[in-house]
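hi! just following up on the protien thing from before. the input was this:
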Amino acid sequence: MSEFGFNVNSTATKGYLGEFVAVCLLKIKGYKILARRYKTVCGEIDIIAKRGDIIVFVEVKSRKSADKCYNAITDKQLQRIRRTSEIFMRHNKKSANCFSRYDVILIADWKLPIHIENISI
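and the predicted 3d structure came back as:
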């Protein structure tokens, strides 16, 4: 337990911190955050952001190394993200004229975040 009252080594805490860093990175790059931890019956998307006419569905991975982050992304997760993003687009009429894209942000311990844009799903 840290002096702030939470376990900085817990998986959940690292996940929240990783998502916080990812949101900050996206905001610096000019994205507007539309949703965090968007949940449906199909699954969850960590961050949904928009810049211009592009809506970006972002998966955030926080691990000890960038390799471990990258290897933690599974085909099953990518399909879940795709299905969940389709639900988001159907329920948000303002996004009807927007393009969509899938990104990954890798948060490795003591490294700058890596933003991989337009991953194929």
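The chain has a mean pLDDT of 91.
The chain has three helices and five strands.
cheers
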